[in-house]
Amino acid sequence: MLERALTGSTRYKKLLGVLLVFMGLGFAAYLTQWNRGLTITGMSRDVSWGIYIAQFTFLVGVAASAVMVVLPYYLHDVKAFGKITILGEFLAIASVTMCLLFIFVDLGKPMRILNVLLYPTLNSVLFWDMIVLNGYLLLNLLIGWNVLEAERKGTLYPNWVKPLIYISIPWAVSIHTVTAFLYAGLPGREYWLTAIMAARFLASAFCSGPALLIMLSYLVKKYSRFDPGKEAIDKLATIMTYAMLISVFFVGLEFFTAFYSNIPGHMDALKYMFVGLEGHHKLVPVMWLFAILAVAGVALLLHPDVRKNEKMLLAAAACVFFSMYIEKGVGLIVAGFIPNPFNQVREYVPSIPEMMIALGIWATGFFVLTVLYKIAVSVKEEVGA
Amino acid sequence: METGRRNFLKIGGICALGLGSLRVVNAFGKTETPKFTANLQALTAKRWAMAIDMKKCWEKGPPGCTDCVLACHSTHNVPDIGTQKEEIKWIWEEKYENVFPGQESGMEPEAIREKPFMVLCNHCKHAPCTRVCPTQATFKRADGITMMDFHRCIGCRYCMAGCPFGARSFNFRDPRPYIKTELNPAFPTRDRGVVEKCNFCEERLAAGKMPACVEACKCKALCFGDLEDPNSEVRKALGSQFSIRRRPELGTEPGVYYII
User: Fold this and answer.
1) CB within 10 Å: which end of chain A, N or C, has fewer?
2) Architecture field, domain B48-259
């Protein structure tokens, strides 16, 4: 099947070319980090994780695109999703690939990464996150590839794939839960120390994943002869609506607990994000953009007639995706370090090379995604023709 | 017997795996625990701890005295990077409101509000940093010291997120050009990309010496000893004066006590 990725229209090749340029720039920036160390980033002694870990956290959520189509299709027999399970699974593969790359570039000693396997440490959540992420990547590769190959041959996928599909559903829950546990179990980081963290991760994953999938399905429909189907998109939109409402509700719960209890440690990070703390307010405009996008997304999604309109739905999906991007991919990680253990505010701004590396990884993810989608769409076109 | 190329390769692969595993089994079979003799002069304890008598420090020490910091940082080749962003420190000064956030009343005597407090790794009994480390590069010793293995650390900085005391520093760049004190060849310099922090001078304890900061303090404000030995210096100091610890509500059981 892989040969289908090697041929394609000029537009396909141009897209890959553009992505390769960004990948190259990111790689060049990474070489300077490799030579000079993490000093080239904006991270500091006080904010010791920055956009790398934040992007990783957000992208774990995007990987939920797979389970949100696989679960209704295989457990509830929602036939409309049959055509697009492959799109969800391939998006999950691209997302998890980016997650792993973001972890890699965040390491101070990347050449020692295998120490995680050489000295397996069961009490470290990071060890378990490594297990669940790699497992999810492998599951989606095996499932997606075999189901697609069977479709191409006009047969049913091999029997051994079925249990993997069922395993992949709770496994998807595990990647969000374990990633949330990375943060939610640390004493002294009050903003992260909340029992609702894993629930928040699941809710935001279940809206940001489908949001991107809706936008990608539109592109697939526009630029190929494969139509994911209106019914599938409508159902995804419903899922996204509920998940988005729950996400916004969960963020509101954090505000209530912090501000009604009036405990400084619980209020500080929220204050820093939305109004600034001790004269420091670099995140304030970004977080208000989150608030505006979230409200706009909810407003567009609430009425079924509005979200059934294709243009409106795309706008809503973009609002959902970017608001959740800001919430997980910018705010959550940085604000967790503010104020520092000495109750001082030390701000963080990513450096240019740091952003180039991040952009390079996004380009890599989209490169993987483009190639996988090209294969899937080619097969669908052949079968459909 | 009919056999295709596929089967031949399969059987060949299994045989190769079998032969290979024999070497692994042998290696494990031969493993013996390394033989060494402990230094008989070494100082040992059930749980090392420190009591810092801030009053002694302020009253007897000359103003602006940083003997303990200098002694520690020169003993351990701690670099002076020169920026707040990448600062590396094992023991340093902070103000009361920063050391004990949430405990300040705002009505403390000016001396307490303005005078420096010494902060260092608390060598917590239930250390969150060792709990989160994915490679056991930071770990607890039986005597309570929280150790760092600079050669195993992958630089993920999870321990820095886990430490509620800001005790850990990361080598964002190669620290060696920034070592401004005379190089101590008896202690390893660090490489770029690893985390470091106070080690309660375990290398000096092993040689029968007290920690460098304790030894350097002329006014004997730093008191070091075995917390589980009722006759130790540290227990006597804590038993006779009121002391507090940083963020006790987190349950990490810090091993550094402050007498104010």
Assistant:
1) C
2) 2-Layer Sandwich (3.30)
